[in-house]
User: Fold AAA family ATPase from Kitasatospora terrestris.
Amino acid sequence: MEDAAVAGELNGQGGTRSDAESAGIRLRERELEIESARHAVSRLARAHMTGGAATGELLLYSGPGGMGKTSVLDEVRALARGEESCTVLFARGGERQRTEPFHVLRQLLMPVLSRLTQTERDEVFGNWYGIVGPAVGLTPPSGEVERIDPQGVRDGLDYVLTQLAPRRAPLVMVVDDLHWADRESLTWLASFAVRSRELPVLVVLAYRNEFAEDTDGLVRQIQQMATRHHELHTLGPESVADLVRSAFGDKADDAFCRQVWAVTAGTPYDTVALLRDVRDQGIEPVEESTPRLRDLAAAARGQTRQFWLEKLGRVTLQFAWAAALLGTDIKEEVAAAISTQGPEQAAGSVRELVRHRVLTTQPNGRLEFVHPLIGTSIYQSIPDAMKTAMHGIAASVIEDAGGGLVLASRHLLETHPEGDDQMVRKLRRAAVEHLRIGAPDAAQRCLKRALAEPPSDEVRAVVLYELGCSALLTDPAATVNQLRLALDDEYGLSPSMRVDAVFRLSEVLAHSSDLEAAAALCAEEAERADPGPDRLRLQIAVFMYQTLAREESDGPGRSRRLRQLPLTPATRDAKHALHALQAWDLTLRGVSAAEAIEQAEAALVQGRLPAGLAWTGLTWGLELPALVGLTFAYTDELARAERLFSDAILEFEKAGWSGAHRGFAYFLMGLTRFRRGLLLEAEDFLRRGLRLSERIAPGIPLEWDIVGVLADTLLARGRADDAWELVQKYGFAPPGHRTAMVLPDASTLYGKLLLARGDRLGAIAVFTQVGAALDARGWHNTVWAPWAGHLAEAIAPDEPERARELAREAVNRARVFGSPSAVGVALRLEAAVSEGPRAVELLLDAVGYLGQSPASYEHAYALVDLGSALRRVGRIPDAAEYLYQGMELAQHCGADGLVARSRRELAVAGLRPNRLRTLSKDALTQPEWEVAELAVRGVPPQRIAEELSLPLSLVHRRLAAVHRKAGTGPEGLAAALGLHEGGGAPQD
Assistant:
């Protein structure tokens, strides 16, 4: 039992706890560390048992190698298993497995996730199975998605743990040797540490202070969130003496014990190794033996190749080498194949390694090194040439055993370059698999190693191209460098791949806010390309980047050249792309909403994006499908825009793209909900998008887009101070983003804020400047940038006649564009600078137009303005009707400021505001269906009133509700409600 006691109890030696318990041994000088764990486990279990809110903790144990961290964690696991309700998960970082993505997380999560029932799996994973499953090894990567955003995997893991923790609560997650964790696992653990206190989870981590330099930020994040952090130190002379006497009994004298402490410096691991050698060599633990201790300690600490050869013998050492290559997940049959040993010989090697306390067997049949330091020592003892050869064999054995290139690739990285084309192909395939599980860093390591092989001249540029694309979602600078090298390569790419590379490079430049460089690159390459689809693709890209740029020298000329761009010869994808770009150009120019809608519809196939224009497609990127949806959003086809943007969110979630792509989709949906007047929903989408934007980088175009619309939303809700605080926080002010156009026009939004704050002079300066810039560019859309109407408001007190001229010009432009919301809002703004009966007349027209649009907030605004104008001219009964309508609709929109204003107007008129009624969900009532069916047939409102024997005002109200709930104007009403163009019952 003495041997068992030493093996189990000595710090840093990782024996079984039952042996230590049987010997009645405790861990030396680790009472405080163990008590922290006991308290945390007990508190978590007690809260769970009593039905209380169990909140998590994060415990850290750190110190140099051999300080007993592993033994402390063994005790923590034993304490947790002693609580009947606890679920214990364990993983260990591996020195040789730091380049194997998600290695630690697979160890940690696979045991519990693989045992979920189908029902539990559906509940725990939700929509994340296709993203998280391949990363943790539950399912092979899908070929449907070429690359998954690492942030998407982390978001999915967060979701899975959030669902898993209550179902397996309380959950204790223990990770040893965190300093050797792979980057993917360490990154997630660092982010999860922030949330661990919100869940019934105890996270316990142990590590040496030997992290890679590029992980400093992750380590600090973990340390900052720790509930308690214990630094383990060396043992004192008394504890070492206790250990000596645990091994040799009372015959160990004081001088011998003191010398053991001196030569080991109190390091638990060195102490154990020394005492074992003393016992194995039969040395008496007395003062006369102390001269031999220093040499024994040096030999035990050094553990050279000769040391292991003498201890184990050549055959057993060769198996140990194979085990050291495999790291923390050692299968006997795999190690046997690597060391070229048959089953019987391998079994004998295992017995010897267990006897010499090098390996230990686990309940799952796997083997582990008794201590990580032993594994390190044996790995370092392998001759360099032998090590390289064995890594090559290991890669083949793992792949042949069904492990896949994700597991085999770390061994491929350790082989010597030999110009082997097959090795290049394997590394490229491994990179593809890494990208499909959300591990681009691992993919880049494989492709860089492929370049070092080196590949043949014909393939080198392709590998450079693949290396550039592998960093597309995570490292724009690396993508730019590698793609430029691929384009400059002597042997070069095929023509079609060269166009792909140019487009990818231009896309990265554009997303990095250099749209001018992106457009110039595509223009230069288009000049070199032969006439045909590839050249047309580049030409379309030039127009796209010029359109999205903040400034351009010849906007009208670009629009003219775009209209003249021939559609033949062109692929179907190119035609769809060109239609999308022309639709947005028509929208910005404010030429004709009907023509813009026609072009947007031509970009679709049966109302959906074609495969070539997909949100996650690699041919065009996300800009063109976004422009189709934005065209619908600014032409009152909001239901169609919402369908497209909803598809975008789902596609990005399915692909695991959780960065700028999903943030942009949230922005688009938020903008559409704002246009529809659903202000609370708009704010929610926009804030979600802003959170994603903030974790990417400050000041990116996406941030500007979101902040502008969010400020407009807060303004519409009556929270002008909050809106101003928001724009100040993010530096949102003219002249806007330095290179990219902001959606919608940033300067106009800023001018509206200044006007709302009473700064007329500041607003006048902003509106005047933006008006001149947009006019020069040929952009006259009054919905995109209603600068003229607001400028009229700002100058009206000083220049009333000029204000009316400006407002009338804005109405004329709106009528040219022709969408109901454009005309209605322009009329409302003209009414704001008019008086008396003229203002009432304009607002009646505005309410009529806005009643045909889904823009419910703008409709509510016009109703309240009309009620106010009617009150001012003494028409109190009519004023009351419109004020009540406007107040109800404003409440439905979440426009609290407008509700308060309408109440004040009613009070001034001597009327009592009625109790607000909450509108039902977007479902038409039977009376609304009756009106809708007649409207779809083309029956005008006056005849509808006559046919249904209703007042005309009530018909207008019901039509307005129909358009608002359907999310579309008159042109799209039939399709939105599932009615035949000639009328008829709704379709399924």
In short: Residues 495-657 form one domain. The radius of gyration is 36 Å. The longest strand covers residues 201-207. Strands lie at 57-62, 87-92, 171-176, 201-207, 228-231, 359-361, 367-369.
